[in-house]
Structures are given as structure tokens and as C-alpha cells.
Amino acid sequence: MEELKAIQTLIDCLSKLPSIGKKSAERLAYAMIDMDENELLDFSNAIKNLKSSIHRCSNCGMYCEGELCSICQDENRDKNTLMIVSYPKDVVAFEKSQSFNGLYHVLNGAISTSKGISFDDLNVTTLFKRLADENIKEVILATNPNVDGETTAIYLAKKLEKYNVKVTRLAYGLQMGGALDYTDALTLNKALQGRQKIGD
Amino acid sequence: MEELKAIQTLIDCLSKLPSIGKKSAERLAYAMIDMDENELLDFSNAIKNLKSSIHRCSNCGMYCEGELCSICQDENRDKNTLMIVSYPKDVVAFEKSQSFNGLYHVLNGAISTSKGISFDDLNVTTLFKRLADENIKEVILATNPNVDGETTAIYLAKKLEKYNVKVTRLAYGLQMGGALDYTDALTLNKALQGRQKIGD
Predict the structure, then answer these.
(1) Which of A17, A117, B34, B191 has the fewest C-beta atoms lying within 10 Å of its C-beta?
(2) What is the dihedral of CA A31, A36, A39, A41, to 10 degrees?
């Protein structure tokens, strides 16, 4: 039996989302048929209006609705510390953790030989402009702890040498709530190397 | 930091889908921002058009685009065997398995005391009409193997006594590819009770 066209179209759309396979897409599509007509209309509109109402902050590259994002406009942030992340969702993650009060710069990607993304494809022109213009004293490299993220961090660290800033990288180690025996060898190695004196 | 309104709206919509929690909804929403504008428009339209282009087959209750579904219209199906399922997606699952060539009847739910769904809320009026009008010799009860599905099957079996049909229930047992030590006690019990002579 063929799926009905309207259902198949929706399944195809849902399948394009990350970590949604064919099976999940089917399940979601069938669940959506049972949803309220108004809920579906809201959903449809939310998707349609997504792009048109979201822009990039001209300063840091984060998503925003106006010219500048709320973080860049916030007078209470520490203007001396700049965290460089790959993606807007990384900013969201750090903001939710409430562990950082400095500014961000979103590269919008990472150097990737497999995807053909080079350093110049990243949002770096404004980064260097900010380093020249703003009073930044420390740059925290917070790219992802994977091959692409590491490559980007190393490349960036090199590029930042000529600026008078302290360059740091997020620590590696055990995940909170994790278990030693479920932690991969590389992370265990990094956790050991990065061990700290208790009381520090 | 607050999420942007357009993103938050989409996250709220995505969170309403089954098995999509807040965290997954966030991840999906951020992935969708990076999607192509046309892809998003297609997605939006697929959701908007979902309800309007899908109806219920007036005979069996399955989703269809016309008056009758393709299965009810198919002359090559075995018209003597009727499988009763709770949901349209169960029909899709069986059709994909290519293990059944009879007709279906979709109850569109199951008796549930917790959800306040009684037998009369199900799509049963046409079921009894079919049993009276069509030449059905066997009814296979294929409701889900959970409390609501079992209740429905037992109730149905009682109701079907007055019709001259053989009533059967899907077998319980081990899942193909499963492992004994990961199988729950009740299923093991059912698998044991339902054991069959090799060669049958």
C-alpha cells in the first residue's frame, strides 16, 4: 500500500530533520493527522514565518530580531571576555547554564575538510574587526570537542596570536552525572591530564 | 536569555509531537533555521494541507483521499478475512509487512477508562453493518498488546459472538531479533503458553 500523498509529503519533510529517521517521521506524521486543525495551522505558520523574522546580529552573528542581539546590547555583560562558538545553539546552551556573562562571537560553522568549509567561510571578518575595535582581553575558544571544532580552535589560536589577548580553551573532562566506565578513553586521558588540585 | 519569539513558537509546536521533548524540539527548531527557505515553505504547506486532503474511508475508517480507501476498493483482497485494528498506522504497519491480504477495520482508538473512551466511542457502527452485509468468515483482533487494546479485544470478542464468524487474536511471543534476557516476564510467559510444535 502506498502512503497517501499528503502524508508522504509530510513524512518527506519530517525526514529532513536531524535524527528523525523514516520510521520516526511516519509516527510523527500520523500523530499530526490527529492534531487539532488550529494547532496544525499554528505549526504551519511558525515554520513559514521562521526565516522572515530571524536575522543575524551584525556584531556577533547570533540570531536576533533586530539589528543587534540582546546580548550585544546588554550593558551589564562583561565586555572584556569574548567566547567564540560555532553555532547559535551553543550560545543558547551557555546562556541557559548561566555560567558566562561575557560576549559571544558565532562563527556559524567550523573548518571541515569533509564538508569543504574553510576558515574564510566562517564569520571571521567581523571577529577581527571586533578584536581591533573592542576592548577584549580574553578570548575563550568554545568550538565543539570534535575534529572540526578542534581544527577550528587550533587555526583560530594561531590567527589570534597577533592580537594582544589571552586565548583559552574550554576544559575537557568527565561529564557531570556520567560514569567512568562509560567514558571513552580519549576523554579519560584528557580528564587525567587536566586534573586539578582539590581546593583550587 | 529568552529565546526569540519565532523560535520559541516553533519549539512549542514541535514539543506537542509525541516523543519530542523540550530539548529535542530546541534542536529541531535550530536545525530548521538553517534549512532552505523553499524547504521550509514546503514543510509549512504540507502541514497546512494535511487535514483538508485526508478523509476517513466510509467503509473501514482508514485514511484515504476519496470516499473509499484503496484497500476496500481492491478486488484482489481476500474479502472473507477482516482484521480489526485500533489505528490507521496499524494498517500501514501490516501493509508494509506484506503478511496480510484481507480487509481491515479501523476502530480509531481503544476502550480506555483513563481517557474516558468507551466502546461506543469507537468506529463500530459500520463494523457491525459490515459483519451483517459482507461475507466475512474470520475476524482477527489486532488491537495493541496493552491494557486498552486487551480490554477492547475482550469486549469485541464478546460482541462478535452473535455473528457467525471465527474470531482470532494475534499471537504473543518473542520479538524477532530480540533476546530472551531482555524480554519481560509477561511476554516470556505468553511465549511459553503459546509454544508450538516444530514443523507445524
Answers:
(1) B34
(2) 100
SS3 A169: strand
For residue A39, pLDDT beyond 90: yes
E strand intervals along B78-137? 81-85, 103-106
Residues 66-85 of chain B whose Cβ lies under 8 A from any Cβ of chain A:
70-71
Tell me which residue in B2, B50, B96 faces A10 most closely, judged by beta carbons.
Answer: B50
- Dig out the grid coordinates for B147 from the structure: 491494557
- Window 159-198 of B, Cβ < 8 Å to A: none
What b/e string do you get for A73-111 counting C-beta neighbours within 10 Å, with b at 16 or more? eeeebeeebbbbbbbbbbbbebbeeeebebbbbbbbbbb
Is A45 in the B-facing interface, judged by CB distances under 8 Å? yes
**Cβ neighbours of residue A102 closer than 8 Å, sequence gap 6 or more:** A77, A78, A79, A80, A81, A82, A83, A138, A140
Q: Where are the beta strands (DSSP E) in chain B?
A: 55-56, 63-64, 81-85, 103-106, 138-141, 166-169
pLDDT band, very low/low/confident/very high, at B170 (cuts 50, 70, 90):
confident
Residue in chain A nearest B43 by alpha carbon: A13
* Chain B residue nearest residue A92, CA to CA: B1
pLDDT of residue B155: 93
Q: Is B3 part of the contact surface with chain A (CB cutoff 8 Å)?
A: yes
| Residue in A with minimal Cα distance to B38 | A48
Helices first, then strands: H and E counts in chain B: 9, 6
Distances (CA, A) of A126 to A81, A120, B190: 16, 12, 66
This complex has an ipTM of 0.72
Q: Would you call B167 exposed, middle or buried from its count of C-beta atoms within 10 A (0-12, 13-18, 19+)?
A: middle
Contact state of B42 with A13 under an 8 Å Cβ cutoff: yes
Does the CB of B53 have a partner CB in chain A at under 8 Å?
yes
Name the residue of chain A whose CA is nearest to B108's CA. A34
